[in-house]
Amino acid sequence: MPKRLVLGIDTCGQKCSVALVSNGKTVGKICETQERGRAERLFPMCFELLSQAGRSWHDIDALAVITGPGHSTGIRLAISAARGLSLSLNKPAVGISSFEAIAYGSNSSPCHALFEAPHGRAHSQTLPNGKMEFGRLENLPRPSAETIVIGQDMAQRAAKFWGCHWQKPKWSMAEAAAMKVASMANLSLADPPVPNYHSEAV
What does residue 66 show for φ and ψ, rounded to 5 degrees? Predict the structure, then answer.
């Protein structure tokens, strides 16, 4: 694994989360549950995280950002922040989907990443190449019985409903995104951050 210091950013849900990852390990992370004020807190959180880790902005080798699906305002915030930092620091910014982040570190393939959306709905996708789905649990396509469902509480309920095994994500989404980017052999081939709104209903 390349020895990179990567800053991960996630504001796609109700949490505002940042993480620093180096050499496959989490250097530090800050996560706050916020329905409002994420735009005002994101950069102060980054400063706090760097200060706690004894690092500076110029120590960062790359940025990893969750591109959605999720809350559309949060997606725009995270990607705008990552793009701005990328330009000011002259460091690459890489986009990681919510599904990739949830499933990162799992040894199960295929696996089914699922997370809660407003009004009792969910986003889900069977990785690596399944179709993204959105809706109420009872209306989502049922994965095969041998597929592992990965996610938090709603994913656990979905696994029970479908008769599948459930697995909790190994890391927070900001950590997982940074871990994935830190492990990439060639960042010039990685996907730049592009919004993945998936459903305009969210």
Answer: -75, 125
- In angstroms, the CA 61 to CA 63 distance is 7
Distance between first and last Cα of the chain = 36
Distance CA 157, CA 164 (A): 10
Greatest CA span in the chain, whole angstroms?
49
- As a whole number of angstroms, the distance between CA 179 and CA 24 comes to 6
Give pLDDT tens digits for 152-190: 999 999 999 999 999 999 999 999 999 999 999 888 888
133: left (phi > 0), else alpha (psi -120 to 50), else beta? beta
User: Could you read off the pLDDT of 57-82 as tens digits, one per residue?
Assistant: 999 999 999 999 998 999 999 999 99
Q: Is the CB of residue 20 less than 8 Å from the CB of residue 55?
A: yes
> What order do you get walking across the sheet with 25-33 strand by strand?
25-33, 15-22, 5-10, 62-66, 93-96
Q: Could you give all domains of the chain from N- to C-terminal order, each with its CATH number?
A: 5-98+170-189 (3.30.420.40), 107-167 (no CATH)
In the sheet that 121-127 helps form, which strands lie side by side, from edge to edge?
133-136, 121-127, 111-117, 148-150, 165-167
Name the burial class of residue 200, with classes exposed (0-12), middle (13-18) and buried (19+) by CB atoms within 10 angstroms of its CB: exposed
Please, which residues have CB within 8 angstroms of residue 84's CB and are 6 or more apart in sequence?
A: none
